[in-house]
Write a structure and sequence with these properties.
Oligomer: single chain
Number of helices: 4
Low-confidence stretches: none
Distance between the termini: 60 Å
Number of strands: 4
Strand order of the largest sheet: 1-2-3-4
Largest sheet: 4 strands, antiparallel
């Protein structure tokens, strides 16, 4: 005799329902650093928009404007449902890195085309997204 699988009675809960203070923190910090990013609550949520061409205090790399022009990078920051324990992923939308750049350490592009922008390889979940990527 076999039993039909029971339907799950579990209710899906987003990360921000479990971490409302973290959502508020990100909604304060990210626009403070990157005012042209817009939040979307689709899926696990994220931000999309344009960054300034070079928002950092350190010197701009040589020939950056040859690659991206005078404008900034259009990107999508994607949260996963394990956020904040797992760092968000940042995907460039325009300009897109070429596939040969996807695993080139000098470009800091991961194999899935997301950008590696963390100052350290460590993400504990307590870091600020705006500060870490800035």
């Amino acid at each position: 005799m076999t039993t039909a699988p029971a339907r799950s009675t579990r209710t899906f809960i987003t990360w921000w329902e479990c971490e409302p203070r973290r959502l508020r923190r990100d909604h304060e910090e990210i626009p403070a650093h990157f005012p042209h990013l817009v939040f979307s609550d689709e899926g696990a949520g994220g931000w999309e928009g344009m960054l300034p061409r070079w928002p950092f205090d350190r010197p701009e790399p040589a020939h950056l404007t040859d690659w991206i022009g005078e404008r900034g990078l259009r990107l999508r920051l994607e949260y996963g449902q394990a956020y904040p324990m797992v760092a968000p992923r940042i995907f460039p939308l325009d300009p897109l890195p070429e596939p040969f750049e996807w695993t080139q350490h000098r470009w800091h592009v991961n194999g899935d085309s997301s950008l590696c922008l963390l100052h350290d390889d460590v993400w504990t979940g307590r870091e600020s997204v705006g500060e870490t990527c800035y």
